[in-house]
Design brief:
alpha+beta; Integrase; Double Stranded RNA Binding Domain; hpI Integrase, Chain A; DNA polymerase, domain 1; three-stranded antiparallel beta sheet; elongated
Length: about 425
């Protein structure tokens, strides 16, 4: 018969101590009352209960029954209950593993949307240029999504919650609402991938929210790009000319020609007519898919000459990237952003749009030109629209392509340059 351990009292168990250096590792004491019930004491006096027994598969095993907060009496009850399960064909170890797994799954399903956003941002940190960009990404969620679903488990977020979030701004701030939906969709995709929710993404558009909200392009309000104010334009242009680098020169050329960023970045030497001082943008790079002729001012030609002198034989682009190829759109945007930040650091307000109070961006320079042409010159509106390559009447467009009109357009761009260089009154108004 196996040796039966003496049944110790609660006081006797309390007085048990680790033998010290004579016993390396943990010491184990049989406490009796239930066969195989042991008290384990670590060298640091930590205590826990163990049950050594034979499991349903006939193998010897050791099961934990709790720590120092479990009394002797409770440990014996747990040991008896465990043995009863084994006698009834239940594997306590497997049962414990399943409970732990269920607890983990339950915890995953109860991850809040707010916490999911934090974890998502940590996992995707490399996507963000800097901490400021990360905070901008999160600010939209904080403002619109968190009040509705911030404290809700991601597993409980439905498309009706998304409609509740998006509908108030869907027609008034469509661009913001669209970005908000996309950001919620990414967070919820992350949550599903990590086992925090199941099923379709309630923030996806196709086959889901598109049945409950109008198409963004049908309801979007005009959101003009932030522009340099007319009163600030000469000072801004002077600051731009102080900057070095291909990005600064491309931005200067775009300003002088009122061209789009992509048209300037894709400018090739073959598009320049040096004799007649013209730039023909091919239809493939124009928004209206028609070739566009730009009359170049002397200042624009000066930039082209300087870029030509510095150009290498192996590049076809006027404003090439450092490693060759087309210049990135981010290069021009970064130039304007740094100009704005320099103003802020100097204690000034920076280059802010008159209405939105947002920092000006490259595309907004076209609005600055339009404001100048409309407010400070008497050049015809159609001439301004043609310079901007906007859609106009075909007969009017044909007229502005004629040689006589090219020189009038060149005069307009020269007056625009004069304004930028010192705020001079256009010659057309003198």
């Amino acid at each position: 018969m196996p040796k039966i351990a003496k049944e110790l009292s609660a006081l006797a168990v309390k007085n048990l101590k680790h033998p010290g250096s004579t016993t390396p590792g943990n010491a184990v004491f049989a406490v009796g009352g239930v066969a195989g019930l042991m008290l384990q004491i670590t060298p640091g006096s930590g205590r826990s209960w163990l049950l050594r027994t034979t499991n349903v598969n006939g193998r010897r095993c050791e099961m934990g029954l709790g720590g120092h907060d479990v009394s002797l009496g409770e440990a014996r009850e747990r040991a008896r209950a465990t043995k009863d399960k084994i006698r009834n064909g239940i594997n306590p170890l497997q049962e414990k593993r399943e409970r732990r797994k269920a607890a983990i799954e339950a915890a995953k399903r109860h991850l809040t949307f707010r916490d999911a956003v934090d974890k998502f941002l940590v996992d995707t940190l490399a996507e963000f240029r800097n901490e400021k960009h990360r905070k901008q990404w999160q600010s939209t969620l904080d403002k619109y999504a968190m009040p509705v679903i911030g404290n809700l488990a991601v597993s409980e977020v439905t498309k009706h919650h998304m409609v509740e979030i998006l509908k108030p701004i869907w027609t008034t701030k469509t661009e913001t609402a669209t970005r908000l939906r996309q950001r919620c969709e990414r967070v919820l995709d992350w949550a599903k991938a990590h086992g925090h929710r199941e099923g379709d993404n309630p923030a996806q558009w196709k086959g889901n929210l598109n049945a409950m909200l109008s198409k963004p392009s049908k309801v979007a309000t005009v959101d003009n790009q932030p522009a340099v104010q007319l009163k600030d334009a000469p000072t801004w242009f002077a600051a731009l000319r102080q900057r070095e680098g291909t990005g600064a020169r491309a931005l200067e050329f775009a300003t002088l020609t009122a061209a789009r960023s992509g048209e300037v970045r894709g400018l090739e030497w073959s598009e320049i007519d040096w004799n007649d001082k013209l730039w023909t943008v091919p239809a493939s790079r124009m928004k209206m898919k028609r070739p566009h002729v730009v009359a170049l001012s002397d200042a624009a030609m000066t930039i082209l000459t300087a870029m030509k002198e510095a150009a290498t034989a192996d590049t076809k682009y006027v404003f090439p990237a450092i490693r060759g190829g087309m210049l990135s759109d981010m290069t021009l945007s970064a130039t304007m952003r740094r100009m704005h930040e320099n103003e802020i650091e100097a204690g000034r307000t920076g280059w802010l749009d008159k209405n939105s109070k947002r920092p000006a961006v490259p595309h907004g320079l076209r609005s600055t030109f339009s404001d100048w042409a409309g407010e400070l010159s008497d050049y015809p509106r159609d001439m301004r629209e043609f310079a901007l390559a906007h859609a106009i009447n075909s007969d009017v467009e044909a007229a502005y392509r004629r040689e006589t009109m090219i020189e009038k357009r060149r005069a307009m761009m020269s007056d625009w340059t004069a304004f930028l260089q010192g705020g001079k009154t256009p010659s057309s108004m003198t």
